Amino acid sequence: MSADATHQKRPTVAVLATGGTIAGDTADATQTASYKAGVFSVERLLSAIPALDGIAEIYAEQIASIDSKDLDDALWITLTHRVNTLLMQNNIDGLVIAHGTDTLEETAYWLHLTVASIKPVVLTAAMRPFTALSADGSLNLLNAVTLAAHPDAVARGVLVAFANRIHGARDITKISTYAVDAFASPESGILGWIQDGRVEFQRLVTRAHTMQSVFKINAIDTQYALPAVQIVVSHAGASRLVVDTLVNARICGIVVAGTGNGSVHVRLQQALADARARGVAVVRSSRVGSGHVMRNGAAPDDALGLVSAGTLNPYKARVLLILALTHGWGEPVMLQSLFDQY
């Protein structure tokens, strides 16, 4: 082995912390439901993982210290600005975001569409607080840094490292309120796995993302209010009250979490048709958890001007609709094209 090989420079990975259970503290190590999220700093989290020294040079930054259930538009914009700025630096090879599990899938998809770099961006989190018995955050963070430093992670969009699995940002969803293995990619499957420093990818990401994305957020100020988009749910006995209230409040877009194949209760469907007639963008998704919503499969989309979310769940459909409306793309034909592409 040459002298150059033995002294090969380690990659540099930026680690941005936002709070969450991964930085949580509990008074009783045996209790994993009662704790305070976002207590510990990113430096404290990293200090618990000496093995990181053998993987990468670490640049650490605290972006927020919140419970991810309280995430808002401003933090999304802040993250996009900061991630893009760091990844433009030649000395940064990849980036990890320590996040809460509650809204991780939404942030991951937001960044998947707004990060302008082929460098790896990996989100991770924990189901047990930092001070709990058998806390899972340190291993997840170690794996996330390993993945962000790995050359095979380049140009795959935003990834999630959790419980030794690699998920794509578009596919991942939370499936358990308590289990350590709390995430799945139910329709498409995981991208690969990571264990004991070994990274293996088993499939490609096919939808447009990052450098292929048309969505540009860097020019938006962090105080800018993104277009108001809310989610309503179709269920037995549904009324039009929520939709009418949102329309009167000048909502910009509505995602409906329909039953089955995005089907909508007749009263709710009429309310959505009336909302569309008043210029509100309406997207049909499903509350089921997997599968796809066929255009015109369960509602007269063409006649009413509705858009099918395809395989996006309601929460990610909301992210895509917000970004589309931010760029002024609110007509059904354009929106459907974006939902088919992303």
Could you provide a short overview of the structure?
With 342 residues, this protein is an alpha/beta fold. The chain is built from 10 helices and 14 strands.
Structural class of the helix and strand makeup?
Answer: alpha/beta
Instruction: Assign the CATH architecture of the largest domain.
Output: 3-Layer(aba) Sandwich
Domain unit count: 2
Q: Supply the CATH class of the largest domain.
A: Alpha Beta
In round numbers, the mean pLDDT is 95
Shape: globular
Largest sheet: 8 strands, mixed
Would you give the CATH topology of the largest domain? Rossmann fold
- How many beta-strand segments? 14
CATH fourth-tier homologous superfamily of the largest domain: L-asparaginase, N-terminal domain
Number of helices: 10
Main features:
342 residues; Rossmann fold; 2 domains; four-stranded parallel sheet; 14 strands
Topology:
Blueprint: H1 3-6, E1 12-19, H2 42-47, E2 57-66, H3 73-87, E3 94-98, H4 104-114, E4 121-124, H5 137-148, E5 158-162, E6 165-168, E7 173-174, E8 183-184, E9 192-195, E10 198-201, E11 229-233, H6 241-248, E12 253-258, H7 266-277, E13 281-286, H8 301-304, E14 307-308, H9 314-326, H10 332-341
Parallel strand pairs: 1-2, 1-3, 3-4, 4-5, 11-12, 12-13, 13-14
Antiparallel strand pairs: 5-6, 6-9, 7-8, 9-10
